[in-house]
């Protein structure tokens, strides 16, 4: 069984990826060994919580649980892997990969980062997709959008990454990249630096080429979700945060609040950024995810996240 990488340089690897030191680092040897490590790390990750309808069958790990106390375990794993091995085993495989975790790979430093999604993450990705599609449906343009899901995308520099959700025009205009124009990253233990790093990748014109990156940070122990919206600023050649709001529910009265307290909490997706072209008629307007949309989105996530407490 593979053992975590142990050397003085391990801290440097964490610094490179902007991840906490609690993240274990392994040397990649084979897909079978990789899957065994994933199984081990998942067991550690969920060990402090009861499993709801959890079944483990070989490589198909369907465990459903909650995160451990923040700071004690991470939902990330780092593997040191040669680019040729990554291409052969992860990109050129003729069969479906035997896991459902999100991956990102940087061939320059030979680091493969795995993010283990939990039930609340999956619900957040599904809920955000449903919320966006509902807003598009109100304008009668929902069929003009393509959902990319967690498709693996590779940039020109060889870096590879998976988002938790992606959307873009079904028929991009001539010359536009055939990639999602809006992406979503659902996170739990990421540091602010890691969030900025992920957002930077997705909206960088030389990498992810998206126009908007949303990050939804789901708090592990309380009903609280922080959503940030990032867009690329060509004048300073870096992403800027356009929106930063937190949705939380009071334990005392069960009401949902927004931080900061805004008159009309909402997310605004400019039409031209989503469709990569200017609006052409009255239906083609900016997409607004309003206050009630965000409340319903958060409630769906919390219902899944804290289902054991409701029984």
TrEMBL record:
Region (Disordered): 156-179
Name of the protein in its database record: Uncharacterized protein
Organism: Penicillium fimorum
């Amino acid at each position: 069984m593979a053992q975590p990488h142990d050397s003085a340089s391990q801290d440097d690897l964490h610094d490179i990826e902007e991840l906490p030191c609690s993240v274990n680092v392994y040397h990649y040897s084979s897909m079978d060994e990789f899957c065994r490590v994933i199984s081990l790390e998942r067991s550690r990750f969920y060990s402090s919580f009861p499993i709801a309808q959890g079944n483990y069958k070989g490589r198909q790990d369907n465990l459903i649980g909650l995160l451990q106390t923040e700071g004690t375990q991470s939902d990330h794993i780092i593997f040191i892997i040669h680019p040729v091995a990554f291409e052969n085993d992860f990109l050129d495989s003729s069969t479906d990969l035997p896991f459902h975790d999100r991956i990102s790979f940087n061939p320059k430093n030979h680091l493969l980062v795995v993010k283990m999604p939990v039930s609340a993450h999956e619900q957040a990705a599904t809920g955000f997709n449903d919320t966006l599609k509902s807003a598009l449906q109100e304008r009668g343009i929902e069929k003009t959008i393509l959902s990319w899901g967690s498709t693996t995308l590779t940039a020109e520099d060889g870096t590879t990454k998976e988002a938790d959700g992606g959307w873009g025009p079904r028929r991009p205009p001539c010359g536009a990249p055939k990639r999602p124009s809006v992406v979503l990253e659902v996170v739990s233990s990421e540091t602010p630096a890691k969030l900025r790093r992920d957002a930077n990748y997705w909206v960088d014109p030389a990498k992810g080429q998206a126009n908007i990156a949303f990050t939804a940070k789901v708090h592990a122990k309380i009903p609280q979700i922080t959503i940030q919206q990032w867009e690329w600023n060509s004048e300073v050649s870096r992403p800027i945060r356009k929106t930063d709001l937190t949705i939380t529910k009071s334990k005392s009265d069960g009401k949902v609040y927004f931080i900061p307290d805004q008159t009309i909490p909402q997310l605004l997706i400019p039409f031209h950024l989503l469709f990569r072209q200017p609006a052409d008629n009255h239906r083609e307007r900016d997409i607004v995810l309003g206050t009630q949309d965000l409340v319903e989105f958060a409630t769906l996530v919390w219902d899944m996240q804290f289902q054991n407490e409701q029984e």
